[in-house]
Amino acid sequence: MGKSFYAVIIIFTLLFAACSRGSKADAVTAATARKGPPSRVLLKEIMPDAASDGAVKIAVLVNLMAGENSRQFIEGCVSEGRSMDFTVDAFVSGADEKRCKEIAEGIALADYDGLIFAYGDVDFSYDILKPIADKGIPIVTFEALPYRDGKSIKGLITTFQDDYSLARLSIETLLSLTDNLDKKARIIRVGCEPGITFLDRRAWAFEEFVNKGRIEEAALVKLENTENPRGAAWEALAAILPRFPPGTVDGLWVPWEEFAGGCAEALASAGNRDIKLTSIGVSNDVINLMLRHHDIWLASAAVDPKLAGTVNMRLLAARLAGESVNDTFSFSPQLVKTADLNIGVNLGNISVIVPGWGDGEGLFDNYKWMIDLKAAGEKYLRIPPVPQSAPQAAPQAAPQAAP
Fold first, then answer.
1. In terms of domains, do 212 and 237 share one?
2. CA-based max dimension of the chain
3. What is the DSSP letter of 286?
4. Which residues contact 354 (CB under 8 A, 6 or more apart)?
5. Alpha-carbon torsion, ordered 255, 72, 62, 385, to 10 deg
6. Containing structural domain, residue 155
7. How far apart are alpha carbons 313 and 290 in whole angstroms?
8. Closest to 190 (Cα-Cα) out of 170, 160, 162, 213
9. Helices 163-177/197-211 angle, 10° precision
């Protein structure tokens, strides 16, 4: 009697557990159906080649010193990539070409599905990116145009700041804020030897104003030491300032923010506060210097580096998904005025005073599959994929990946 009673209890318990498991499974299935498929499932449908091993893996390589611009660019890449459930590894070379080449070689040998590369001269960019492209890895570049013998890399997408618009905006601002609105303005220009592509384009824009008779170039401050641009700018400008008594120069045009800090400090040290300057580019350090020299440094034209990273990731995703996109894209500049700044402003909140700063709405984000991917990521708790076997040669030379 006792044994039969316990047997019945055990059978009843097992049946109850099985029913419970079934009901829970049914509930999970129903919840999943309501939410739609998770992003990992969608990725295999949208970009089957890239997601064939269960994850879409993107490398971001920035050939700059570790600083605010590189951090902001990487943040844009990483946050946008992760919103689509990509795995994103980011590397900063420290503007060391040998180091950058080593990292690129590691990326070529590792199991990445795409690469975003930022900042590099023509020949150098070609040398390090061609082996990666030859492996069939899609590449998007920012401020780098790989060329060799008049040819670029097949399938490459290149993005740029619109250097002509940046230059024109900063120059027009300088002219509008100087007193000599009714005659040719005498402007000191900062520059260096030809060969740095983005500075060359900006210099050509300045020449347009000279040729149109709106500007007289009072002097060219030619810099040779770009390894220490701030110090080089300070020394070179300080050396020529004694040639220009008060009232003989209307302004100073600085085509790169790395030069502008030294120029502002040289003007302040020499007491030439009647010479006003505008520049190109912005960072947290630049904002602080603009505030420190607010009576000299009037404004800076700039592109949001975080937005550049965001759009580069969207373009790479579109290429992986088989979308037809243009091979080039340029970012329009915005103007940061010193008069609008205060000590609480930084690149993280500058949109409060610069309308539209960082607004990427409508920039390659209207694909239905991209919207679905991001929506799926918001609905599901993302669980990291099962680690794959280590590649034969991972980027050993790369510094620690960005978080």
1. yes
2. 116
3. H
4. 334, 335, 336, 340
5. -160
6. 44-162+305-325+364-379
7. 31
8. 170
9. 50
Strand ranges of the sheet holding 215-223, from the earlier edge strand across to the other edge: 215-223, 185-192, 251-254, 276-280, 297-302, 334-337
Q: Residues 303-330: what's their mean pLDDT? A: 96
Domain assignment present for residue 75? The answer is: yes
Contact criterion met (CB below 8 Å) for 155 and 133: yes
3-class DSSP state of 403 = coil
32 secondary structure, DSSP code: H
CA torsion angle for 147, 153, 156, 157 (degrees, to 10)? 20
Phi, psi (5° rounding) for residue 272? -90, 60
Identify the CA nearest to 316 among candidates 118, 119, 124.
118
CA distance 50 to 7: 54
Between strands 251-254 and 276-280, the pairing is parallel
- Overall pTM surpassing 0.90 (yes/no): no
Do 310 and 192 belong to one domain?
Answer: no
Q: How many residues does the chain have?
A: 403
Cβ within 8 Å of residue 170, ≥6 positions away: 253, 255, 278, 279, 280, 299, 300, 301, 335
**Residue 213 burial class via C-beta count within 10 angstroms: exposed 0-12, middle 13-18, buried 19 and up:** exposed
Strand-pair partners of 254: 279
Neighbour-count burial of 164, counting CB atoms closer than 10 A to its CB (0-12 exposed, 13-18 middle, 19+ buried): middle
Continuous segment of H or E residues that includes residue 62: strand 57-62
The whole-angstrom separation of Cα 225 and Cα 96 is 15
> For the chain, what is the domain count?
2
pLDDT at 69: 82
pLDDT of residue 35: 56
Q: Which of 271, 302, 333 is the last residue of a domain?
A: 302
CA 272 remoteness from chain centre: 35
We report the CATH number of the domain holding residue 49 as 3.40.50.2300
Please write the tens of the pLDDT for every residue from 202-252.
Answer: 999 999 999 999 999 999 999 987 778 899 999 999 999 999 998 899 999
361: three-class secondary structure by DSSP: coil
Residues 79 and 83: their CA atoms lie apart, in Å, by 6
Q: Is residue 84 part of a domain?
A: yes
User: Residue 258: CA atoms inside 13 Å, Cβ hemisphere, count?
Assistant: 15
